[in-house]
Amino acid sequence: MKQGVGAPITRKEDDRFLRGRGKYVGDIQLAGMREVAFLRSPVAHGLIRAVRAPQGAMVFTMADLTGVLPIRAPSALPGFRRTDQWPLAQTRVRQVGEPIAMVVAGSRAEAEDILDAITLDIEELPAATDMLAHRAGPPIHEGWPDNVVLQALVDDDISDVQAPIIIRRRLRTARQHMAPLEGRGVVARWDSRLNQLEMHTSSQMVHVTKTGLAECLGLPESAVRIISPDVGGGFGYKGILLQEEVAIGWLARKLGGTPLRWIEDRREGLSAQANCREHHYDITVHADRDGTILALDCEAHVDSGAYSAYPFSACLEAAQIGSILPGPYVVPRYRCKTWSVATNKPPILPYRGVARTGVCYALETTLDAVARAAGISPVELRLRNLPGPEQMPYLNVTKKIFDSGDYPEALRRAAEAVDAPGFAARQKAAREEGRLIGQGFAVFCEQGAHGTSVYHGWGIPFVPGAEPCQARLTPDGGLELRVGVHSHGQGMETTLAQVAHEILGVPVDRVQLIHGDTALTPYSTGTWGSRCAVMAGGAVAEACMELRRRLIPMGAHLLQDKDAVFADGAVRAGAASVTVAEIARTFHRAPQNLTEAMQAQGLECTVGHKTVRDTGTFSYACHAVEAEVDAATGHVTLTRYVIVEDGGVLLNPLIADGQVLGGTAQGIGTALFEEMPYDTGGQPLASTLADYMLPGASDVPDIEILHMETPSPISRFGQKGIGESGAIGPPAAIVNAINDAIAHLGREVTDLPATPERVLAALA
């Protein structure tokens, strides 16, 4: 049975997960462990006048955390304004839920009882809650003239563009919460023997967390060890340094060997922790009469929340908008101005899709309006504006290099799958029955695995270099792979084992992936930006190739044939062969049978990998949706969903499908359900899952995935990152389907999510 690259084998890790044997931070029990709870701000903006704790209780405020520095996520981009996010608020709070004091007790219930007994005196101040209305101030940070974190401009004077079709739309995407199944959690203790802080935390970027934590605590990095066990979903939510991690890290050191634990509850996660996705677009498309795009103009705002989260900073979302708004299309002229705006809400994070979901929604829904104005189908309009395969690699207007692919073919396959030419007749028949049905498309690309040159340009606190892998053959012929990336649902324990099998022939079940521990793995910026299959996959391949280069002369020596070659997991000379396991056993347990030089070389190596060009691979997809709108209730039912996806060479098609399906479910949530609203005082109005609506199984239709596999010319096997792809297309495709259903009434939905209330408002 084929096990290497391209084999659709089931995930190794699922055996323990399905049997309830996964181990998460909440499962960790240490002797003498104490529980931590946080007193959080009840107001969005205010001055702390006093914190009075009950006598005898272990309560700590920022005044106690001597020597601790604030969390800072600066950017080198001109005009960027830095924020200081203290682990515990010092004199001012800037969001509901900001931690003010930390309580330690024998149980979480006891700690919460102490919290209830604390007297908190806060002078409430007016809250900035609308990024458009409060951009000019009053400022929420002292010394700022307004609330602009960063203003950016991609400037092309398009005033001379003469376009017979000009379509302008104002669109808004809702603030969301990432809502992973497992929330954040921390277990920490000070190891006096090693003079080291040992912290278990649910993180997707353990080495970056270690660096940031050491900086805040004033410790050398050798004095901090971060361990992240199984992670129940990340999506960007597990990708920042937390105030709670810094505070608990300080306290663990102060208390000596006493272990401490904090497990986030769902209300904390929803009301206090980071959010995502809140964008506003004022977008204009200039087009010729036949629908050919002539120019694109946009002014966009991103609500960045109160602080710049480490390490991504508050600039990332808005800066991304300027660079990726043109999507996969040929856009001759382009202007885009963006603002990151600070408000009295939690910081914003790069959630799965990282700005692409918003820009795809803004551009694709506007393009449908262009198609209606041009009197052509949405499919035909897109075909007229997509670059063809003969143009690859294609350099677009913002200097993105699309590495490979046939974008028009993906659209054609999706249109054929949903019978786009025959839909008008079906739609007319449905209207005669009193039913409103629509069909929508969204085409997009996903830049993944982008590296040093891209992130150096952002000027944020970490810049990825060559992704490392340490490979080691054990005495019994097993293979250990140590990587700095972390799997939180991507199936890396399987796919990276498949890569190793492709190179060395070691059976997948004999490959062990070691990750999530800074003491055991090489330094890496971690799991983000759809980079693991490309970067870590390439690193595993290179490390295994280095082992293979060492194995060949050893095997040739044992076979006494200098012309021996490596094939099918063994060194072979004619009919004779010696397996990888036999060579490893000889090296470790009978070294006298090898030369001195071979013994000195070793069967362990660490190798770094970068793609041929580090500007990223470009996967792409077309989502095609059919939906029915209930005119009486505003309810939207998804009746057909087809995705044509090109992720290059798929390391494991089953896992690729799982990634696309999971992302699509989240994208459906963005399109129809998920919203984190705030009132004018900055109070969150969805602090439980009774208020924050997530899509359920009945809300996600059967999804048909059709793969195209155009190899990337810059990655090790031709693979491309597709980890975020599924979440990008649904809002645009679904709203286009809704608007197609009601377009004959002259109505449109413009804001996300397209809830029944918003659909009814559009119909009214």
Structure description:
With 764 residues, this protein is of the alpha+beta class. The chain folds into three domains: 14-25 and 33-125 and 184-263, Alpha-Beta Complex (Aldehyde Oxidoreductase, domain 3); 356-450 and 614-763, Aldehyde Oxidoreductase, domain 4 (2-Layer Sandwich), CATH 3.30.365.10; 466-609, Aldehyde oxidase/xanthine dehydrogenase, molybdopterin binding domain (Aldehyde Oxidoreductase, domain 4, 2-Layer Sandwich). It contains 19 helices and 28 strands. It has a seven-stranded mixed β-sheet with strand order 3-5-1-12-9-10-11, with helices on both faces. α7 (356-374) packs parallel to α18 (730-742). The radius of gyration is 27 Å and the shape is globular. The N and C termini lie far apart (60 Å).
How would you characterize the largest beta sheet? 7 strands, mixed
Determine the N-to-C terminus distance: 60 Å
Fraction in beta strands: 15-25%
Question: Would you identify the CATH architecture of the largest domain?
Answer: 2-Layer Sandwich
CATH class descriptor of the largest domain:
Alpha Beta
How many domains is the backbone divided into? 3
**Corresponding CATH superfamily of the largest domain:** Aldehyde oxidase/xanthine dehydrogenase, molybdopterin binding domain
**Unreliable segments of 5+ consecutive residues:** none
Give a count of the beta strands, DSSP E runs of length 2 or more.
28
Number of helices: 19
Which whole number gives the mean pLDDT? 96
The shape is globular
Helical percentage: 25-40%
Whole-angstrom Rg = 27 Å
Kindly identify the CATH topology of the largest domain.
Aldehyde Oxidoreductase, domain 4
Strand order of the largest sheet: 3-5-1-12-9-10-11
Class per helix and strand makeup: alpha+beta
